[in-house]
Design goal:
homodimer; alpha+beta; 3-stranded antiparallel sheet; 5 helices; 3 strands; DNA-binding
DNA sequence: ATCTTATTTGGCTATTATACCAAATAACAA
DNA sequence: TTGTTATTTGGTATAATAGCCAAATAAGAT
């Protein structure tokens, strides 16, 4: 594999890795309905403020979300909403898997 | 978040995590063109046999690929090819990111 | 049966990710 | 200024991942 292709896959993996966590997938889903401040996430889920803040940083560093400061609060929003379209295929994998398990039983 | 939603995001994260590695993304790309045996991957990339084998196991456990033994060789194939469609959006994130960096410079 | 080739498995180490706590910062309010 | 709220940052313990080597297994060839 040449260097160009290597870099391509590394760049893609970085973004996909940023999505590869249940809490972050939930955050992405929530952001579909519009921007939200950090405290709104903390309210809705049983997690530490710092934990949510760090998850948001991971998404920010991957270029998936963006934020804006409004007074004391920081509002995050989806930068590239097509991210959500992928979930259809992920669900297809889950369904296909549950079929395979059925067959085995 | 209720337990059902928690499990949903965990199941999704498991699949996405399985994709979140440059070598595995490359494998997925290669499999688009049809099934391949382990040795074909080893030939094409500078990596150990056991490393590739373990990457394939990760994809198998996530339900993304499937395999079939043919004589001495094991052939892997994509089980749910829609996985590839996602890359379009991943590329959109990369492009959006490079634009943001341009603005900063 | 022995040899060879293809692949998986186990073990080890180095690196990275996660979650929680405490402390730091930032903005507004009193 | 001091206090309060929202958020980030740093530290640290723990768990997960990656890659390499050696050994184990499996199938076909001699």
């Amino acid at each position: 594999m040449d260097n160009h292709r290597k870099q391509l896959y590394e760049a893609r993996a970085k973004i996909i890795k940023a999505m590869a966590h249940p809490t972050r997938l939930w955050i992405i889903d929530e952001l579909y309905y519009g921007e939200k401040c950090v405290c709104e996430f903390v309210d809705r889920i049983d997690a530490d403020f710092s934990t949510i803040s760090k998850h948001l940083l991971v998404l920010k560093n991957a270029g998936i979300v963006d934020f804006e400061k409004k007074g004391k609060q920081v509002y995050y929003r989806l930068k590239v909403p097509c991210i959500l379209q992928f979930m259809g295929c992920v669900e297809a994998v889950i369904k296909s898997e549950s079929k395979t398990i059925q067959k085995k039983i």
